[in-house]
Amino acid sequence: MIKVLIVEDEKPATDILKYYLDNYDDIELIGAVSDGFSGIKSIKDLNPDLVFLDIHMPRLNGLEMLELLDEPPQVIFITAYDQYAVKAFELEAIDYLLKPIEEERLSSAIERARNKINSGEKADYSKLSKRMIGDENEFLNRIAVKQGSKVHVFPIEEIICFTADDDYVNIIHSSGKFLKQTTLKYLEGVLPPDQFYRIHRSSLVNADFIERIEPLEKQQYVLITKNGERLGVSKNGYSLLREKLGL
């Protein structure tokens, strides 16, 4: 029996999924929730084999939710037509359903998911986030991070800076420091370049939180943020700051 969870914030889409899924003898619907926070909790508590996951949800969207899971289950994404989402799914060979959901398309997606589950194939959605950025005018506007059992969602304008920490990045926020498994290289490509500056190989800083830059010896500099964080500035980083801020 395949245990299925629905994470979808639109009731009509949830209702039609429930109606169609009732026709499958090998599927057990173990829950349906309407937001990403409840989705994370339900996946942890119920351990589903397959999740029908809406991409566009308020507060915490489908991709942000997946990023916070250590071992995600198999997922069939649900979305209204979005050319960048569809392109990303097809490039990564990931199943998706377009709203309104069609029974024939659902049947094909379930069959592929069934084969993956029966073969023990591990789910991997790590490349999706970057592919979902449609063009150079579209950037992240918030970042989700898990700390213990708690999930935080920070608007990017509230983040002071990011600093590298091996395979992780420290997110420095006025409420504290939070660790997220990602890279500065990835963040540099998906954050607005007129707001976040790569001032060193180990840091990205929000221009709105720059307090001052102090010289050190031998043409070296340190940047002080408004909360007192001290960040090293490389030669290229200093040139960038001079260009952007007119120093």
From TrEMBL:
<keyword id="KW-0597">Phosphoprotein</keyword>
<feature type="domain" description="HTH LytTR-type">
    <location>
        <begin position="143"/>
        <end position="247"/>
    </location>
</feature>
<dbReference type="Pfam" id="PF00072">
    <property type="entry name" value="Response_reg"/>
</dbReference>
<dbReference type="InterPro" id="IPR007492">
    <property type="entry name" value="LytTR_DNA-bd_dom"/>
</dbReference>
<protein>
    <submittedName>
        <fullName>DNA-binding response regulator</fullName>
    </submittedName>
</protein>
<feature type="modified residue" description="4-aspartylphosphate">
    <location>
        <position position="54"/>
    </location>
</feature>
<dbReference type="Pfam" id="PF04397">
    <property type="entry name" value="LytTR"/>
</dbReference>
<feature type="domain" description="Response regulatory">
    <location>
        <begin position="3"/>
        <end position="114"/>
    </location>
</feature>
<keyword id="KW-0238">DNA-binding</keyword>
<dbReference type="GO" id="GO:0000156">
    <property type="term" value="F:phosphorelay response regulator activity"/>
</dbReference>
<dbReference type="GO" id="GO:0003677">
    <property type="term" value="F:DNA binding"/>
</dbReference>
<dbReference type="InterPro" id="IPR011006">
    <property type="entry name" value="CheY-like_superfamily"/>
</dbReference>
<dbReference type="InterPro" id="IPR046947">
    <property type="entry name" value="LytR-like"/>
</dbReference>
<dbReference type="InterPro" id="IPR001789">
    <property type="entry name" value="Sig_transdc_resp-reg_receiver"/>
</dbReference>
